[in-house]
Amino acid sequence: MHRDLLTVVIAAFNEAQALPALHPRIAAVLDELAVEVDGRVLYVDDGSSDGTWDVLLGIANGDARVSLLRLSRNFGKEAALTAGLDRVEEGAAMILDADGQDPPELIPRFVEKWREGHDDVHGTRSGREGESWLKKATAHAFYRVMQRLSKTPIPTDTGDFRLLSPRALAALRQLRERHRFMKGLFGWVGFRQVSIPYQREARLAGNSKFSFWRLWNFALEGITSFSTAPLRLATYLGVLTALLAFVYAVWIVFKALLWGDAVAGYPSMMAVILFLGGVQLVALGMIGEYLGRLYEESKQRPLYLVDSWRPALRVCSDGV
Ligand code: UDP
Ligand code: MG
C-alpha cells in the first residue's frame, strides 16, 4: 500500500532538557499513524551550546526515522526552520517546537486535514499556558497590528505549528529572502489553508529563547518585511507638520501686520524647531530600517551554513 511521507521538522536551540521528553511522544504518534503515513523526524540543531547535539545523536541512534542537521552557529529559529524544510525533499512537512509547547498528539488531526486536500494546516492558539499576561497581551496586539498593516493575510494567534503539503513546501522554498518572517511567508504562499484551534501548553523544560527585546525585533522584522505602511506614515506625518507649519506661518505674518513685530517668541521657536527635528529623525529612522534590510538582502549571503548532516538510517520504509 502506498503511504504518504511526512517529515516532522523541529528547530532546537539549547533544548537538551526538553528533547528527551518530547521525542517519545512524537515517536508514539508516528507509530500510531504508521498505517497511513510514513513518518520521519528531522531535528535541526541551531548552534546549541548545551549538549543538545549529543542528546539528538542519542535519539537518532535509537530511532531509524530520525535525521539530524546541525548548523554552524545559532542562526535563529526562522533560518533553522528554513534549513530543515530545505532538506525535506519528498512529502509533507510538519513543523513543531522542540519544547513541547505544540503538542505532538495533535499531529493526526493535521494529517487528516491534509488528506482532505488542505495545503497549509496551522494550529491557532485558543489559549496559552505558562506564559505571562504581558507576553500574551503583546502577542495579541502584534497579530492585530500586523493584520491591519500587511496586505498579505497572516492568520491571528498562529505560530509555526503547521503542516505544509508538498506543493506549499515547494512554493515556500522559492522565497529566499534573508529577513525571514515565516508567519508572513506561509501566508504569502496561500493555497488551501485551514486552522486547527489548540491549547498551547507550558514548556517542558528550560526557558523561552525569546526575550522581550528579541520579540520586539521580531515584530519590527514582521512589519518591515510585510508592509511599507511605516514609510507611508512618515509621508503623512510630513504632510501634517507642513500643514501645521503653514497655518502657523500665516498666523505669525498676520499678527506682525496687525500688531507690529516685536522680537520675541523664543519659546515658540524652540518648540517648532524641536518638533520638526523630532519628526525628521523619526522619518529618517523609518527609511533607515528599510534601507538596512535592503542592504542585508543585497549581500546575497546564504541563509544558513550546515555543520553536519546525519541522514535517517531507514531510507525506504515501505513494507517494513
Ligand atoms: N529556537 C531556535 N533558534 C533560536 C531560538 C529558538 O531554533 O535561536 C527554537 C527553540 O528551540 C524552540 C522554538 O524555536 O523549539 C521556539 O522557541 P521558544 O520556545 O524559546 O519560543 P516561545 O515558545 O517562547 O515563543
Ligand atoms: Mg516555546
Helix count, DSSP H or I runs of 4 or more residues: 10
- Assign the structural class, choosing from mainly alpha, mainly beta, alpha/beta, alpha+beta, or little secondary structure: alpha/beta
Terminus-to-terminus distance: 11 Å
What coarse outline follows from CA principal-axis ratios? elongated
Report the helical percentage.
40-55%
Kindly report the spatial arrangement of strands forming the biggest sheet.
Answer: 7-5-6-4-1-2-3-8
Low-confidence stretches: none
Average pLDDT figure: 85
Largest sheet: 8 strands, mixed
SSE blueprint:
Blueprint: E1 4-12, H1 19-33, E2 37-45, H2 52-62, E3 66-71, H3 77-86, E4 92-97, H4 107-115, E5 120-128, H5 133-149, E6 158-164, H6 166-173, H7 182-189, E7 193-200, H8 212-226, H9 229-259, H10 266-298, E8 306-310
Parallel strand pairs: 1-2, 1-4, 2-3, 5-7
Antiparallel strand pairs: 3-8, 4-6, 5-6
Helix pairs in contact: 5-8, 9-10
The chain binds uridine-5'-diphosphate and magnesium ion (MG).
Question: Could you explain how this protein is built, in words?
Answer:
- Keywords: Glycosyltransferase, Membrane, Transferase, Transmembrane, Transmembrane helix.
- Its main location: membrane.
- This is Glycosyltransferase family 2 protein.
- The protein is an alpha/beta fold.
- It has ten helices and eight strands.
- The chain has helices at about 20-35, 50-60, 75-85, 105-115, 135-150, 165-175, 180-190, 210-225, 230-260, 265-300, and strands at about 5-10, 35-45, 65-70, 90-95, 120-130, 160-165, 195-200, 305-310.
- The protein has an eight-stranded mixed beta sheet, sandwiched between helices.
- Helix 2 links the parallel strand 2 and strand 3 (about 65-70).
- Helix 5 runs parallel beside helix 8 and helix 9 packs antiparallel against helix 10 (about 265-300).
- It binds uridine-5'-diphosphate (UDP) and magnesium ion.
